[in-house]
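Worked Example 4.2. Consider the chain below.
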Amino acid sequence: MIGKISGRLEYRAGDHVLIDVRGVGYIVYVSDRTMATLPANGEALALFTDLLVREDNLQLFGFTTLLEKEWHRLLMGVQGIGAKASMAILGTLGAEGVSRAIALGDINAVKAAKGVGPKTAQRVVLELKDKAPAVMAMGGTMAAAQGDVVAEVEVIETPVVTGAAPTSAAAQSEALSALGNLGYAPADASMAVAQAAGENPDADTPDLIRAALKLLAPMG
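Applying the procedure from the previous section yields the following C-alpha cells:
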C-alpha cells in the first residue's frame, strides 16, 4: 500500500498530477480544492495517498491532510459513493466542511457536490453521522502526526458541571480541541461545550461535539 508520496510536481491536469519520485512518475488524482493549494510545477510536493485497486486498473488519490484522507476512506464505504463522488464532496466542502455537514445532518451541503443526488447525500449523512464526531476529535492527533505547526490559542477555562462524571472534564477538553480544529473561536467553542455539558452531564466526547455544533450552527 502506498500511503504517502514525496517528490517533484512534474505537471498537473484537470483532475490529477504527476509527481516525479527519483525518476519514477506517479499519477495521483486530487480534488479541486486540493489542486488549488498545490505548488508550481517543478517544486517539491508531498501528498498522503490512498490506492484504489481494481481488476484492470490501479489509481492513487492524493490528500494534503490525514483528515481529508480519513474522510475519503469513510465516504468510499458508503453505498453509491465511488472515488469520483468522494473527491467531489471533499472538493466542494473540504475535510472540515464534511465533518461539519455530516455531524449536523446537513444533506443539502453534501448534495451540493457535483454528481451527488439527494438520496445519495442522505445515505452519506445517515451512515456516517455517528462517526463524524470521532473523526473530528482525531483532528489534533492527525495534525501532530503530520508535523503541522499548531498555532497557540488563548486558553479559556471551560466550566465543568458540578456533579458531572469524572470523565466529563476530559470529554469537554477533547470537544473543545475538535471545535478548534474546525476553526471556531475558543470563546464561542467554550460556551457551546459548557452549555452542551450542562444539558447532558453524562455526554461523551462525540455527543458533546454534536450538541455544541448545533449550538454554534447559527454563528456559522
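The longest helix spans residues 83-103. The chain has three domains: 4-63, 66-142, 151-219. Compare this with Example 4.1 before moving on.
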